[in-house]
């Protein structure tokens, strides 16, 4: 079976239309509601023995292949990994501290905590159809009376793509765990009823000496807690092994066990600190390193390592001034530590970026293109601030703190959490039904939620800034506060996973897609969640525009903005019709009051429909120049009254016309050697290119098509007061114009328009001629000698 053809994506929606998807999601919602209404108690009895066997079989059947070894072959159905899940399903989480809850057994779960013990290795939950797995990790546990149940754990850090040995380390056999206010899930979808845990903070691993373990008798016999089964050094060795295998979650668990056995082992604490750094759990890394620094006496080597880890942690948290000071202290302890000297220099660069908004855009683009991530840069907030905007959902927005010029850099933001195509090692399908905005989500979106939760757990300060984002009317947007826990995941942060899912759904950004589109895994796509950029409200004709390079986002003003004026972005593609925009926007709000939508409404439905019909014809495969000329006139006529110059549908028709004219011009010149007619066609192509640019909002000052002298002092042919939303489309149009001028042997014009292209690219990217050459290499190569000559002349002038 050819799976690629079966995958429902935005490009291939034959299998599952949007309507079908919504119907599917509605059915799933009904099923979830029905499930919730079933009586939860009493829980059915399950034989521990049969559950343990079932767990082993599951793990062996296909779990082993997926968990322990390389990725599945993807060729046979049995091996093929399909994950499915729901986002926005009403989930529980506990906010009652463990010591204020009463213990229960599985027979009598209700508003209490459950004390239980892991009695089988973790496995991947499967639906009735074996090849479909849900995204949870499953454990078989027994309570003190020997009753067994399956725990389905969602959102637990490090489990989404962990393999067997690491999961075994995260959930060691015989661990005793307390689950705050667990709830049973009936056997409607899964093979067994089970206990579902949505919030990782509801699970508390109990360690020796915990009060809750006093006087506990296990009817199946006492077994030592896992931590007691190895010496500190043995745990350290296991931790090192996981570290070498890059299984950092497993490694931190082993190092934590080693430290429970012997808290004074500084080497283990330094190793755990390093492991936290790898996981970007910077605050925990700093805590371990600071513990080491608090010891006296301390060897120079340990002091230097601990200081260096503190510096790296502060750097990772974006505290560059602190990090620089710490790197300097490292050099005092060990003047030969070159990494510290390099650290200082990196801090200086980051501080400069942060203060001045000056970036090495060339390197950023190159890294983003190569790695799909933003590399090492700092955040920047320019002349904009968060402000109260009561008339918008969530009540906030972004406004200018002073007058802003066209092209000014407003924001550079690293993601709070991101997922790019390159983040996924496994193949297979992923289906997620989002109950919040009734859409099918892809794996990227789900992974962003997982990583968001993880980041919240790893840093309470980050958790607070995330919880301030808008999650819909049911969640107040007042600042919240979470405490820092001493041991990760062991004290209540009270993570409400449904709220986090709602926040992610309303605020996530995607590359190459409208904010709400589904992206195919085959596209080079990045999905990411940002904090500051999430406060921008929407307009279909905004004064700001965003770009994602890897997972780094930058935002520029596309026109001048007055002090105090709101700065907006668009949440969807820039060229969609009123009807498409309205449909997409309902995910966020019911009615768009921007100027473009007002014009479209005033323009009337019949004009809009006619416009779409013309556009469809113009997009037809066999369309000729003659028909396109007519379509361009007709589509212009669908606009009435005071409709502004921004008309992407018109631009689209002129774009097609310009490229067809250019093709025909070439055929005429080369084939029929008809120079004069060729020249006319190129002139018309240039004029169509001008119309296409103007309908995207650009203002052309110099519309000459003949007799432009070769003169460096000529001003640009375009106005510098507006950056078009779709820069790449405009750049391509300018290259068409340059090509047509070349055919007309108007070399003055080619240079003038090349300068315009370089200006626009630089205004958008900030990367100058060097980045221009990198970004447009594929086109410049096609231009051959012309590009070489023009760029050499421009560089010299
Ligand atoms: C990404 S948030 C933007 C920031 C949000 N206003 C806040 O206070 O956090 C998206 C939400 O803002 C609101 N919003 C954004 N643009 C809007 C617009 N043009 N009209 C109405 N509501 C808008 C909607 O409620 C939407 O779900």
Automatic annotation (TrEMBL):
Q: Which SMART domains match?
A: TPR
Family annotation (Pfam families): SET
Quote the InterPro entries the UniProt record gives.
Gramillin-biosynth_MTr (IPR053209), SET_dom (IPR001214), SET_dom_sf (IPR046341), TPR-like_helical_dom_sf (IPR011990), TPR_rpt (IPR019734)
Residues forming the SET domain are 382-572
PROSITE patterns the record matches: SET
| Name the record gives this protein | SET domain-containing protein
State the species of origin: Serendipita vermifera MAFF 305830
């Amino acid at each position: 079976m050819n799976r690629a053809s079966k995958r429902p994506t935005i490009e291939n929606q034959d299998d599952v239309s949007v309507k079908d998807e919504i119907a599917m999601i509605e059915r799933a919602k009904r099923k979830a509601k029905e499930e919730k209404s079933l009586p939860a108690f009493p829980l059915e009895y399950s034989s521990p023995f049969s559950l343990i066997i079932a767990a082993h079989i599951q793990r062996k059947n296909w779990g082993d292949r997926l968990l322990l070894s390389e990725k599945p072959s993807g060729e046979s159905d049995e091996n093929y990994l399909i994950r499915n899940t729901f986002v926005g399903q009403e989930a529980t989480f506990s906010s009652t501290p463990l010591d204020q809850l009463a213990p229960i057994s599985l027979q009598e779960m209700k508003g209490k905590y459950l004390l239980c013990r892991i009695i089988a290795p973790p496995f991947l939950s499967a639906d009735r159809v074996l090849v479909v797995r849900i995204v949870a990790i499953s454990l078989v546990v027994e309570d003190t009376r020997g009753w067994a149940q399956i725990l389905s754990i969602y959102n637990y850090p490090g489990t989404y793509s962990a393999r067997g040995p690491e999961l075994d380390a995260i959930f060691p056999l015989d661990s005793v765990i307390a689950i705050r206010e667990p709830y049973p899930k009936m056997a409607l979808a899964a093979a067994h009823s089970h206990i579902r845990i949505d919030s990782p903070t509801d699970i508390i691993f109990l360690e020796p000496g915990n009060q809750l373990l006093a006087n506990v008798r296990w009817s199946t016999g006492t077994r030592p807690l896992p931590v007691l089964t190895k010496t500190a050094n043995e745990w350290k060795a296991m931790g090192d092994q996981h570290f070498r295998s890059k299984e950092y979650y497993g490694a931190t668990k082993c190092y934590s066990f080693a430290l429970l056995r012997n808290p004074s082992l500084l080497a283990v604490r330094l190793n755990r600190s390093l492991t936290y750094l790898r996981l970007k759990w910077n605050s925990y890394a700093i805590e371990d390193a600071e513990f080491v620094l608090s010891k006296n006496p301390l060897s120079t080597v340990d002091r230097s390592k601990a200081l260096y880890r503190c510096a790296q942690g502060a750097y990772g948290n974006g505290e560059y001034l602190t990090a620089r000071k710490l790197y300097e202290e490292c050099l005092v302890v060990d003047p030969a530590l070159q990494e510290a000297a390099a650290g200082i220099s990196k801090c200086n660069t980051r501080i400069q970026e942060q203060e001045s908004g000056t970036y090495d855009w060339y390197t950023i683009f190159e890294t983003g293109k190569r790695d799909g991530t933003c590399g090492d840069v700092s955040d920047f907030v320019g002349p904009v601030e968060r402000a109260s905007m009561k008339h918008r959902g969530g009540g906030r927005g972004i406004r200018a703190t002073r007058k802003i010029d066209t092209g000014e850099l407003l924001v550079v933001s690293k993601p709070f959490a991101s997922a790019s195509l390159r983040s996924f090692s496994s193949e297979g399908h992923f289906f997620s039904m989002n109950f919040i905005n009734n859409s099918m989500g892809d794996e990227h979106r789900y992974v962003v939620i997982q990583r968001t939760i993880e980041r919240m757990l790893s840093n309470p300060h980050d958790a607070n800034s995330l919880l301030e984002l808008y999650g819909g009317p049911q969640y107040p947007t007042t600042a919240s506060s979470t405490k820092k826990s001493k041991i990760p995941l062991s004290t209540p942060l009270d993570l409400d996973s449904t709220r986090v899912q709602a926040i992610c759904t309303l605020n996530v950004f995607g590359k190459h897609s409208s904010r709400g589109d589904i992206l195919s895994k085959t596209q080079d796509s990045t999905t990411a969640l940002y904090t500051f950029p999430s406060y921008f409200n929407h307009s279909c004709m905004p004064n700001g525009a965003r770009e994602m390079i890897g997972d780094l986002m930058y935002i520029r003003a596309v026109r001048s903005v007055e002090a105090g004026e709101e700065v907006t972005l668009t949440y969807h593609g820039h060229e969609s019709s009123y009807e498409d925009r309205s449909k997409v926007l309902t995910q966020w709000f019911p009615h768009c009051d921007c100027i473009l939508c007002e014009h479209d409404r005033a323009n009337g439905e019949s004009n809009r429909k006619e416009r779409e019909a013309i556009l469809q014809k113009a997009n037809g495969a066999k369309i000729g120049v003659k028909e396109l000329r007519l379509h361009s006139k007709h589509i212009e006529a669908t606009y009435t009254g005071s409709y502004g110059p921004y008309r992407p549908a018109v631009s689209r028709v002129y774009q097609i016309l310009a490229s067809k004219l250019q093709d025909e011009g070439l055929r005429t010149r080369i084939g029929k050697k008809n120079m004069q007619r060729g020249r006319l066609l190129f002139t018309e192509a240039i004029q169509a290119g001008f119309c296409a640019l103007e309908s995207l909002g650009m203002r052309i000052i110099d519309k000459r098509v003949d007799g432009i002298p070769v003169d460096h002092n000529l001003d640009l042919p375009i106005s510098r007061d507006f950056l078009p939303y779709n820069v790449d489309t405009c750049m391509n149009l300018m290259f068409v114009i340059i090509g047509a001028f070349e055919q007309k042997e108007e070399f003055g014009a080619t240079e003038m328009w090349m300068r315009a292209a370089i200006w626009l690219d630089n205004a958008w990217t900030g990367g100058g001629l060097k980045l221009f050459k990198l970004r447009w290499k594929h086109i410049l190569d096609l231009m051959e000698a012309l590009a070489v000559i023009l760029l050499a002349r421009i560089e010299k002038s």
